[in-house]
Design a protein that fits this description.
Blueprint: H1 2-28, H2 45-52, H3 60-78, H4 86-98, E1 111-115, H5 123-129, E2 134-139, H6 142-154, E3 160-164, E4 176-181, H7 187-194, E5 198-208, H8 213-217, E6 223-227, E7 230-231, E8 240-247
Parallel strand pairs: 1-2, 1-4, 2-3, 4-5
Antiparallel strand pairs: 5-8, 6-8, 7-8
Helix pairs in contact: 3-5, 3-6
């Protein structure tokens, strides 16, 4: 009797073990809801920043991670970005934004305008990395501007001002030392909006994928391109370039 009783028990144990294994495999899948990336896909933020030769102030790494946590949380409801995987958020958002820093030379008090900031990119990572700069982040989308304002409040970023407005509606003569954007499709459109907002000797910086030679060729004579550095973003195989533009010396 006892032998017969043990037989079905072993079969039940096997079935339970199989179910547990299936659940574990499902939970480990990147497709599982809320699943974290596998260890092999995780990005070492500090190592990647060292590769970029970007140095952060104390506590900045934790703030950058806190920003991504907020972005992932809000993104589930408000669809702020198409990038949803945590590892890709590091490469496509944090590192892509911070890779510009070696090419931006600003003293304390540098005034920066991020046009079309969306979910706060590149403005929030720049504000965390350079707390001595004063940044204004502008986006016409109210829900995105609301999210960015929440980030500023929760992460205590006193060097950031958020405005829900179209960049074209900003008053001219803003006196910004640097106007940056990765939102504009065409350089000429970016220049038309950004140039009236610059301080004397201010610069415009467009974040691009492939170097847009045809867009550069049709820029107005009132501006000139002074640099087009390629960016090697760790973990991001796509081409990335900056187009750095300033007013021509002969332009009013």
């Amino acid at each position: 009797m006892s032998h017969l009783a043990r037989g079905p028990g072993r079969a039940g144990d096997r079935r339970q073990g199989e179910r547990r294994s299936q659940r574990a495999a499902s939970a480990g899948s990147p497709a599982a809801a809320g699943a974290e990336p596998r260890a092999g896909t995780e990005i070492d933020l500090e190592a990647a920043l060292a590769t970029l030769d970007v140095r952060l102030p104390g506590g900045a790494g934790d703030r950058l991670r806190a920003y991504l946590t907020l972005l992932a949380k809000w993104n589930r409801v408000y669809n702020l970005t198409a990038v949803r995987e945590p590892a890709r958020m590091v490469t496509h958002h944090l590192l892509d934004s911070l890779a510009v820093l070696p090419h931006l030379h600003g003293a304390p008090g540098t005034r920066v305008l991020d046009i079309g900031t969306g979910a706060g990119l590149p403005g929030i990572p720049l504000a965390i990395a350079r707390p001595e700069w004063a940044l204004t982040l502008v986006d016409a989308n109210q829900k995105k501007a609301t999210f960015v304002q929440q980030v500023v409040s929760e992460l205590a970023l006193p060097n950031v001002v958020v405005r829900a407005a179209r960049a074209e509606a900003l008053p001219p003569g803003g006196g910004y030392d640097l106007v940056i954007s990765r939102a504009f499709a065409e350089l000429a459109a970016f220049v038309a909006v950004a140039r009236p907002l610059l301080a004397p000797r201010g610069r415009m910086v467009a974040m691009k994928g492939q170097l847009p030679q045809h867009e550069i060729a049709v820029l107005p004579a009132a501006v000139r391109v002074v640099a087009t550095p390629a960016l090697d973003v760790p973990g991001l195989p796509a081409q990335r370039h900056l187009v750095v533009i300033e007013a021509s010396e002969s332009s009013p």
